[in-house]
Amino acid sequence: MLRPLADDENATFGLKRHYKFYNSTSASAELREAGRISASLVQEFETASVTRQDLRALVGAVIQRKENLDPEDQFYLEKKHAEFQRNRLGTSKRFTEIKKREQELLLAHRKSLNAPAAISLTASELDGLPEDTLAELEIQNGKLMLPLKKPHFETAMQWVKDGEVRKRIFIANDIRCPENLPRLKELILLRDESANLLGYENHVHFKMEEKMFKSQASVEEFMSDFQNRIQPIAKIEIDKLFALKKLALGDQITENENHLFTWDYAYYRNVLRQTESSFNEKAFSEYFELDKSLEGMMALFSQVFGMQFFKLSTDQYFKLGANIQVVWHDSVAVFTVWNDDQLGGGFLGYLYLDLFPRPNKYNHAGHYGLGQGFLKPDGTRHYPSAVLVMNLHTPSPTKPCLLKAEEARSLFHELGHAIHNLVTNTRYALMHATIARDFVEIPSIFLENFLWSHSVLKTIGSHYSYTSEAFLSLWEAQGVLERPPKELGDEQINRLIAAQNTTPGISALQISSSSAFDMKIHSSSRAELEALNLSETWNRMKAEITGLVGAEVLGEGWEWGHGCSRFGMFVRGYDAGSYSYVTLVLTVTVSNSDG
Question: Which domain holds residue 148?
Answer without folding.
Answer: 116-171
